[in-house]
Amino acid sequence: MAQETTTLRDPVPPLAGSADQTLAHSRETLTQRALRSLLASKVAMFSFFVLFVLIILAVFAPWIAPHPPGEMSLTNRRLFPIFSETGRTNPAYLLGTDGLGRDIVSRMIYGARMTLVVAFSSVILGGFIGVMAGLLAGYFGKWIDAVIMRLADLQLAFPSLLLGLVAMALLGSGVVELVIVIALTQWAIYARVVRSEVLKVKELEFVQGARALGAGKWRIIFRHVFPNTVASMLVVASFSLAMAIYYEAALSFFGLGVPPAIPTWGNMLADARDIIFRDFYAPLWPGVAITITVLAFNLIGDWIRDFFDVRI
Fold first, then answer.
1. Residue 171 forms part of a structural domain
2. In 67-91, which positions are buried (b, 16+ CB within 10 angstroms) versus exposed (e)?
3. For residue 240, is it within any domain?
4. Whose CB has fewer CB within 10 Å in the chain, the N or C terminal residue?
């Protein structure tokens, strides 16, 4: 009888809890969902932490750097890092000095500032040109689409780094010139991605409804079509930032980017060419910084792509 009167427990939680949970998720804002997704991804957290540290170093470089980046000390030339046991060291220079006695830590910190300035400026300029071109090509079509896409195909037909080398050789070295050249090597990617998004969005019901209600072409483009391309644009921008850092370092290494007097990671690699076989640490630190930064931006791009992917 005891077994017959035993109350069976429901192995399934009440449906009310599931409904409440679903309702809570539906009320989440985009920012809340992004934060929850970010906290769930250790790789994305690491990447954003790297970006945060770089921004802090770039903004507060004059207060963080232990020495002026251009200060030379002939008595402290080619010092090894303080943890090295094979050469001269100095506690005042944590990572050693280069061939002119300049502090590597200070030049790394100031190099982060110039690297991020060039990367973000070129991506903003190239993204603006490419997004506008993609919106016009995708929405208006016809000869406008044909002209813009042929220009994009022509630009993509050449290797970007080779095109940048030729352009910088013609324009001369300089920060402004470098930003313009990198932007012009990246606009075509934005144009093609945005155009493909516009071709899908402009045929949807809400766009046709806005057109039927008498909305103008430009209002439809910027009010209804453009917001639906932001997700793809952010993904492209994150990868473009990584490529811009790589291009800046490569062009500066060849002496065609930022002037040598301005500390950048690419210039540090160029300065270490003559002493690389004896003082291997001199090109090691900027090379590691470039690798970690490029990897972080690529991982951020992967996270943004996964976050906006409705299939996930």
1. yes
2. bebeeebeebbbbbbeeeeeeebbe
3. yes
4. N
Whether the CB-CB separation of 239 and 110 falls below 8 Å is answered with no
Would you state the pLDDT for residue 123? 92
For residue 134, the enclosing domain spans: 111-308
Q: What are the pLDDT digits (tens) for 71-120?
A: 888 788 887 887 776 777 778 788 878 878 888 889 999 989 888 999 99
Contact between 123 and 244 (Cβ < 8 Å): yes
Nearest to 251, CA basis, from 118, 147, 141: 118
How many separate domains does the chain show?
Answer: 1
Q: Give the tokens for residue 191.
A: 């144009």
Report how far residue 253's alpha carbon sits from residue 32's, in angstroms, rounded to the nearest whole number: 42
Give the CATH number of the domain where residue 206 resides. 1.10.3720.10
Quick one: angle between helices 230-253 and 187-201, nearest 10? 170
In a domain, 59, yes or no: no
Residue 143 placed within a domain = yes
Identify the residue whose tokens are 């970007």: 160
Under 8 Å between Cβ of 75 and 97: no
List the beta strands (DSSP E) in 22-96: none
Q: What is the DSSP letter of 236?
A: H
Between CA 18 and CA 16 the distance in angstroms is 5
User: pLDDT (tens digit, 9 = 90+) per residue, 213-248?
Assistant: 777 778 888 888 888 888 888 888 888 898 999 888
Contacts of 96 (CB under 8 A, 6+ apart): 78, 79, 80, 81, 84, 89, 104, 279, 281, 282
Q: Which are the contacts of 112, defined by CB distance < 8 A and separation ≥ 6?
A: 54, 57, 58, 61, 265, 289
